[in-house]
Amino acid sequence: MNARRPSTLDGIREAIIRVRGLKVGFGDRLVMDGLDLDLYRGEVLGFVGASGAGKSVLTRTILGLIHKRAGTIEVFGYDMDKLGPQERLLIGERWGVLFQEGALFSSLTVRQNIQTPMREHLDLSQSTLDGLAAQKLELVGLPQDAADKYPSELSGGMTKRVSLARALALDPEIVFLDEPTSGLDPISAGDFDDLIGTLQKTLGLTVFMVTHDLDSLYAICDRVAVLGHGKVAAVGTIDEVLLSDDPWIESYFYGKRGRVRAGSVDKRRAERAGNEA
Amino acid sequence: MPVAPSVTRKIAGDGIVLSLAGGWVIAAGKALEAAAAALASGALGAKSATIDLAGVDRMDTAGAWLIDRARAELTAAGVPAAYRGARPEHALLIREAGYRPLEAVTRDRSSHALMLLAAVGESVYTSGADLVDIVDYLGEIVVMWLRLALHPMRWRWASMVYHLEMFSLRSVPIIALINFLVGAIVTQQGVFQLAQFGASPYAVNLVGVLGLRELGVLMTSIMIAGRTGSAITAEIGSMNMREEIDALRVMALDPLEVLVMPRLVALAIALPVLTFIADMAELAGGLMVSWLYAGMAPAVFIARLQNAILPETFLVGLIKAPFMAVMIGLIASTEGMEVRGSAESLGRCVTSSVVKSIFMVIVMDGVFAMFFTAVNY
Question: What domains can you pick out in chain B, each with its CATH number?
Answer without folding.
Answer: 6-97 (3.30.750.24), 156-374 (no CATH)
